[in-house]
Amino acid sequence: MTVVKVQHVFQVFCTIQRFAFPHSSYYLRLSLIQIKMDTPKPIGRPRIFNSPEELWDAFEKYKEYTKANPILVHDFVGKDATEVYKKKEVPLTIEGFQCFLVDEGYISYPDIDRYLDGYHKEFVPISVAIKKAIRRDQIKGGMAGIYNPSLTARINGLVDKVEKTVIQEQPLFGDEEK
Protein backbone atom coordinates (compact mmCIF):
# COMPACT_ATOMS: atom_id res chain seq x y z
CA MET A 1 0.00 0.00 0.00
CA THR A 2 2.66 2.51 1.00
CA VAL A 3 4.75 1.77 -2.09
CA VAL A 4 1.80 2.65 -4.33
CA LYS A 5 1.21 5.90 -2.42
CA VAL A 6 4.86 6.89 -2.64
CA GLN A 7 4.96 6.18 -6.36
CA HIS A 8 1.76 8.15 -6.90
CA VAL A 9 3.07 11.17 -4.98
CA PHE A 10 6.33 10.94 -6.90
CA GLN A 11 4.51 10.85 -10.24
CA VAL A 12 2.50 13.93 -9.30
CA PHE A 13 5.71 15.70 -8.28
CA CYS A 14 7.31 14.79 -11.61
CA THR A 15 4.30 16.14 -13.48
CA ILE A 16 4.48 19.44 -11.57
CA GLN A 17 8.23 19.68 -12.27
CA ARG A 18 7.65 19.02 -15.96
CA PHE A 19 5.21 21.93 -16.24
CA ALA A 20 7.37 24.23 -14.16
CA PHE A 21 10.67 23.41 -15.90
CA PRO A 22 9.86 21.81 -19.26
CA HIS A 23 13.42 21.94 -20.65
CA SER A 24 15.23 20.97 -17.48
CA SER A 25 17.40 17.93 -17.08
CA TYR A 26 16.12 17.83 -13.50
CA TYR A 27 12.92 16.22 -14.75
CA LEU A 28 14.98 13.60 -16.60
CA ARG A 29 16.88 12.81 -13.40
CA LEU A 30 13.64 12.45 -11.47
CA SER A 31 12.25 10.14 -14.14
CA LEU A 32 15.36 7.96 -13.89
CA ILE A 33 14.95 7.84 -10.12
CA GLN A 34 11.37 6.69 -10.59
CA ILE A 35 12.50 3.92 -12.93
CA LYS A 36 15.07 2.79 -10.33
CA MET A 37 12.34 2.77 -7.69
CA ASP A 38 10.16 0.48 -9.81
CA THR A 39 12.84 -2.20 -10.34
CA PRO A 40 13.20 -4.69 -7.48
CA LYS A 41 16.58 -4.86 -5.79
CA PRO A 42 18.23 -8.25 -5.25
CA ILE A 43 18.35 -9.35 -1.64
CA GLY A 44 21.61 -10.57 -0.09
CA ARG A 45 25.14 -10.95 -1.31
CA PRO A 46 25.63 -11.97 -4.96
CA ARG A 47 26.72 -15.56 -5.47
CA ILE A 48 30.32 -16.40 -6.22
CA PHE A 49 29.34 -19.51 -8.17
CA ASN A 50 26.09 -19.54 -10.12
CA SER A 51 26.05 -23.29 -10.64
CA PRO A 52 27.59 -26.38 -9.03
CA GLU A 53 29.53 -26.99 -12.25
CA GLU A 54 31.40 -23.68 -11.77
CA LEU A 55 32.43 -24.73 -8.25
CA TRP A 56 33.61 -28.13 -9.52
CA ASP A 57 35.59 -26.50 -12.36
CA ALA A 58 37.31 -24.22 -9.82
CA PHE A 59 38.15 -27.27 -7.68
CA GLU A 60 39.59 -29.10 -10.69
CA LYS A 61 41.80 -26.07 -11.44
CA TYR A 62 42.93 -26.05 -7.78
CA LYS A 63 43.75 -29.76 -7.96
CA GLU A 64 45.79 -29.34 -11.17
CA TYR A 65 47.62 -26.31 -9.78
CA THR A 66 48.42 -28.00 -6.45
CA LYS A 67 49.76 -31.20 -8.01
CA ALA A 68 51.79 -29.26 -10.62
CA ASN A 69 53.50 -27.06 -7.97
CA PRO A 70 55.23 -29.20 -5.33
CA ILE A 71 56.96 -27.81 -2.23
CA LEU A 72 60.74 -27.59 -2.41
CA VAL A 73 62.27 -29.00 0.80
CA HIS A 74 65.80 -27.94 1.67
CA ASP A 75 67.93 -31.00 2.55
CA PHE A 76 71.54 -32.16 2.86
CA VAL A 77 72.64 -35.47 1.32
CA GLY A 78 75.72 -37.65 1.59
CA LYS A 79 78.84 -37.63 3.71
CA ASP A 80 79.81 -34.20 2.39
CA ALA A 81 76.32 -32.82 3.17
CA THR A 82 75.61 -31.70 -0.36
CA GLU A 83 72.83 -29.14 -0.37
CA VAL A 84 69.78 -30.23 -2.41
CA TYR A 85 66.13 -29.31 -2.82
CA LYS A 86 63.67 -32.19 -2.92
CA LYS A 87 60.20 -31.88 -4.38
CA LYS A 88 57.37 -32.92 -2.06
CA GLU A 89 53.77 -33.25 -3.18
CA VAL A 90 51.32 -30.78 -1.63
CA PRO A 91 48.17 -32.28 -0.07
CA LEU A 92 44.74 -31.00 -1.04
CA THR A 93 42.97 -29.12 1.76
CA ILE A 94 39.80 -27.04 2.14
CA GLU A 95 41.93 -24.12 3.36
CA GLY A 96 44.22 -24.47 0.35
CA PHE A 97 41.19 -24.47 -1.95
CA GLN A 98 39.86 -21.29 -0.34
CA CYS A 99 43.24 -19.55 -0.63
CA PHE A 100 43.48 -20.66 -4.27
CA LEU A 101 40.10 -19.03 -4.95
CA VAL A 102 41.39 -15.77 -3.42
CA ASP A 103 44.60 -15.91 -5.46
CA GLU A 104 42.68 -16.57 -8.69
CA GLY A 105 40.23 -13.73 -8.02
CA TYR A 106 37.08 -15.77 -7.51
CA ILE A 107 36.58 -14.32 -4.03
CA SER A 108 38.13 -11.50 -2.00
CA TYR A 109 38.35 -13.38 1.31
CA PRO A 110 38.88 -17.08 1.97
CA ASP A 111 35.39 -18.18 2.93
CA ILE A 112 33.22 -20.46 0.82
CA ASP A 113 31.58 -22.21 3.75
CA ARG A 114 28.09 -21.42 2.45
CA TYR A 115 28.81 -23.55 -0.60
CA LEU A 116 30.50 -26.40 1.28
CA ASP A 117 28.23 -26.58 4.35
CA GLY A 118 24.88 -26.99 2.61
CA TYR A 119 23.51 -23.43 2.80
CA HIS A 120 22.87 -23.50 -0.96
CA LYS A 121 21.00 -26.79 -1.43
CA GLU A 122 21.93 -27.29 -5.08
CA PHE A 123 25.65 -27.30 -4.13
CA VAL A 124 25.39 -30.15 -1.61
CA PRO A 125 26.32 -33.03 -3.98
CA ILE A 126 29.32 -31.11 -5.37
CA SER A 127 30.50 -30.04 -1.91
CA VAL A 128 30.33 -33.66 -0.70
CA ALA A 129 32.33 -34.76 -3.75
CA ILE A 130 34.95 -32.04 -3.10
CA LYS A 131 35.30 -33.00 0.58
CA LYS A 132 35.59 -36.70 -0.31
CA ALA A 133 38.22 -35.99 -3.00
CA ILE A 134 40.28 -33.97 -0.50
CA ARG A 135 39.93 -36.64 2.17
CA ARG A 136 40.88 -39.41 -0.31
CA ASP A 137 43.99 -37.50 -1.38
CA GLN A 138 45.06 -36.95 2.25
CA ILE A 139 44.47 -40.58 3.29
CA LYS A 140 46.19 -42.05 0.21
CA GLY A 141 49.16 -39.69 0.67
CA GLY A 142 49.38 -40.54 4.36
CA MET A 143 49.26 -44.28 3.72
CA ALA A 144 51.89 -44.02 0.98
CA GLY A 145 54.16 -41.98 3.23
CA ILE A 146 54.02 -38.89 1.03
CA TYR A 147 52.41 -36.87 3.84
CA ASN A 148 52.84 -37.31 7.58
CA PRO A 149 50.61 -40.34 8.36
CA SER A 150 49.81 -39.37 11.95
CA LEU A 151 48.88 -35.82 10.95
CA THR A 152 46.59 -36.92 8.12
CA ALA A 153 44.97 -39.50 10.42
CA ARG A 154 44.33 -36.84 13.05
CA ILE A 155 42.93 -34.33 10.51
CA ASN A 156 40.54 -36.93 9.11
CA GLY A 157 39.50 -38.38 12.47
CA LEU A 158 41.17 -41.74 11.93
CA VAL A 159 43.02 -41.84 15.25
CA ASP A 160 42.85 -45.08 17.23
CA LYS A 161 41.10 -44.44 20.48
CA VAL A 162 42.15 -46.68 23.33
CA GLU A 163 40.00 -46.68 26.41
CA LYS A 164 41.92 -47.30 29.59
CA THR A 165 40.13 -48.05 32.82
CA VAL A 166 41.79 -48.50 36.15
CA ILE A 167 39.87 -50.45 38.76
CA GLN A 168 41.07 -50.07 42.28
CA GLU A 169 39.63 -52.61 44.65
CA GLN A 170 38.85 -51.69 48.19
CA PRO A 171 40.02 -54.24 50.78
CA LEU A 172 37.21 -55.98 52.59
CA PHE A 173 37.04 -56.42 56.33
CA GLY A 174 40.17 -58.11 57.58
CA ASP A 175 41.80 -58.64 54.12
CA GLU A 176 44.49 -56.09 54.76
CA GLU A 177 48.02 -57.25 54.20
CA LYS A 178 50.59 -56.67 56.88
What does this structure look like?
- By secondary structure, the protein is mainly α.
- It has 2 domains: 2-38; 52-155, Topoisomerase I, Chain A, domain 4 (Orthogonal Bundle).
- It is 52% helix and 8% strand.
- The chain contains 7 helices and 2 strands, in the order H-H-H-E-E-H-H-H-H.
- It has helices at residues 2-20, 25-38, 52-68, 94-103, 113-116, 124-144, 149-155, and strands at 71-77, 82-88.
- Strands 1-2 form a two-stranded antiparallel ribbon.
- Strand 1 (71-77) and strand 2 (82-88) form a beta hairpin.
- Helix 3 (52-68) packs parallel to helix 6 (124-144) and helix 6 runs antiparallel to helix 7.
- The radius of gyration is 32 Å and the shape is flat.
- It starts with a helix and ends in a 23-residue tail after the last helix.
Key words describing this protein structure:
178 residues; mainly alpha; Topoisomerase I, Chain A, domain 4; 2 domains; two-stranded antiparallel ribbon; 7 helices; disordered N terminus
